[in-house]
Amino acid sequence: MAPPEARLIPNDHPEKVRMLVLETDEPHPDTQREKGSFGDVLNELFVKAGEEHDPKLGIETVMQYVVEPDGGKIPKKEEIGDDVHAILITGSVYDAHGDDEWVMKLMDLIKYLWINRPDIRFTGICFGHQILARTLGGTVEPNADGEWELSHTAITLTDVGRSLFNLPSTEKYIYLHQMHLDHVVDPPSSEGNELIKSGTKVHVWGQSEHTGVQGLYIQCRLFSTQGHMEFDEKMVKRQLEMRVEAGSVKLEDADEAAERADWMHDGLIVAKAVLRFFHGDDDSVE
């Protein structure tokens, strides 16, 4: 059981953003033992992304496990300090379209911060991407065919996607590992939406054959991804193992997906783009 108290990973880089990671799941026990929680894994990835930027971009990570049925705690709105300017919500085995009490509390917190803390920029991965979309008025449902999107996947980019990832017009795709049945069916819109100012563009930055909304972008506020920038080969195989043991993924589907787990993916490119978003480097992308 994860401890409910927040944990901090400091970073002394002068140009840093303080990111709160709301952990909505725990990794495979072997991954937890080797790399720590999902927040630890993401912090390491963002630190690497910042070190490779010119000039370097720093990040300081605070982590809070929020699955209350499993001993976590959703922060109270007054506990989100003025020094927090980025929030990341992780992936989860829970349904983003469900009505679990802790999920509804999480949505209430997101809504409050979206309205009252315009300085905070939001990102989410898989479940996090879906819960942000739902909170802002989008629709999240399981895939109609009951098919999972698993492991290494090609994502077709829009022009906005290419701009966010600093890719030339000749680049049509990025590749990320996937691990989901649910997806965003209808993205949020500014039309008749009290949370999104009228006329604000809500961009879908990419799509795959399985999933029409692979990520969302709202200038200066939101940059989410259905795919997992933080996964590597071991993590993919271990997450597949957990899904098979839980009976949610068929063994033959997991075996087929595991064969692609070592393929090159663009998690670091996505992490760099999200970090630039946190720092405001890409605010010109509308």
Summarize the structure in words:
Keywords: Glutamine amidotransferase, Transferase. There is one protein chain. The chain is of the alpha/beta class. It has a single domain (7-279), classed as Class I glutamine amidotransferase (GATase) domain (Rossmann fold, 3-Layer(aba) Sandwich). It has helices at 29-35, 38-51, 101-116, 127-135, 159-164, 233-246, 251-258, 267-279; strands at 7-9, 16-23, 58-65, 86-89, 121-124, 139-142, 149-157, 173-180, 182-186, 203-207, 215-218, 222-223. Strand 11 and strand 12 form a beta hairpin.
CATH superfamily: Class I glutamine amidotransferase (GATase) domain
Q: What are the secondary-structure elements, in order, as H or E?
A: EEHHEEHEHEEHEEEEEHHH
The major sheet is characterized as: 5 strands, mixed
Structural class by sheet pairing and helices: alpha/beta
Question: Uncertain segments of ≥5 residues (pLDDT<50)?
Answer: none
Percent helix among the residues? 25-40%
Q: Please name the CATH topology.
A: Rossmann fold
End-to-end span in angstroms? Answer: 42 Å
Strand element count: 12
In DSSP terms, counting alpha (H) and pi (I) runs of 4 or more, how many helices?
8
For this structure, what is the CATH class? Alpha Beta
- Provide the residue-averaged pLDDT: 94
**Approximate shape:** globular
- Note the beta-strand portion: 15-25%
Pfam family, one: GATase
Protein name: Class I glutamine amidotransferase-like protein
Domain Glutamine amidotransferase: 81-233
Keywords: Glutamine amidotransferase, Transferase
